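TICKET: design request
STATUS: open
ATTACHED STRUCTURE:
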């Protein structure tokens, strides 16, 4: 049986890395073969692209160039890591995917939702996640958490207005893909957030439609 492609989305500072790591541990403890990865990155070529995109000194980067680099790293990551793992029947947990580009480049950079979707459709060959967990935190909480970080990348440095537009973009993404995206209240205690994510994944695994889809 094909594996399951699960993505975590949410604004900067929403706790994706911490929550995804704990959810992966739980899945493994319960016998599920799981691959934890992230975008942009997850494999060597995509990590190199990540460094170019996020390097604070690359202030000359054009918004469309940025969108294309995210799509390029997405393509390589799918081909090298995600597709093979799904073929092997594994659960792939990926921090960020298409929805991040729609929110950050489509809305944050104001390139347009459909424009960004179109360049990404070329990259993803119709591979949408089976399930997306959206970690919902108040925008300001996310931004405050960022302030505590030692490394601030090129996108973290963006204006408050940019981050407001990203939040608006995520609202649009959730509206357009409401069957795929489940909102998780990430303002709760960490253990509760992890448990809510895990239960949502179990529901998807046990969904009778899953066996019919294969
Ligand atoms: P991370 O800090 O969550 O690893 O993500 C790096 C930054 O890249 C984050 O600010 C969100 C941004 N990003 C986009 O703007 N578009 C994308 O398609 C992806 C995957 C990330």
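STATUS: resolved
RESOLUTION: sequence designed for all positions
ATTACHED SEQUENCE:
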């Amino acid at each position: 049986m094909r594996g399951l492609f699960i993505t975590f989305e949410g604004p900067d500072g929403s706790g994706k890395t911490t929550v995804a790591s704990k959810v992966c541990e739980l899945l493994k403890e319960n016998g599920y073969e799981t691959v934890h990865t992230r975008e942009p990155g997850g494999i060597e070529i995509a990590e190199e692209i990540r460094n170019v995109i996020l390097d604070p000194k690359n202030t000359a980067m054009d918004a469309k160039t940025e969108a294309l680099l995210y799509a390029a790293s997405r393509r390589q990551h799918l081909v090298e890591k995600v597709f093979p793992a799904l073929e092997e029947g594994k659960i792939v947990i990926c921090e960020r995917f298409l929805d991040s580009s729609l929110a950050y480049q489509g809305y944050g950079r104001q390139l347009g939702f459909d424009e960004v979707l179109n360049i990404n459709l070329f990259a993803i060959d119709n591979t949408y996640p089976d399930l997306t967990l959206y970690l919902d935190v108040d925008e300001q909480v996310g931004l405050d958490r960022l302030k505590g970080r030692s490394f601030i990348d090129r996108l973290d440095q963006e204006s408050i207005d940019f981050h407001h537009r990203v939040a608006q973009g995520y609202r649009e993404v959730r509206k357009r893909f409401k069957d795929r995206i489940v909102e998780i209240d990430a303002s709760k205690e960490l253990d509760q957030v992890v448990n809510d994510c895990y239960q949502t994944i179990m529901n998807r695994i046990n969904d009778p439609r899953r066996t019919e889809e294969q």
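CLOSING REMARK: The pocket of thymidine-5'-phosphate is lined by residues 12, 38-40, 54, 70, 96, 100-101, 104-105, 155-156 (CB under 6 Å). The chain has a mean pLDDT of 94.
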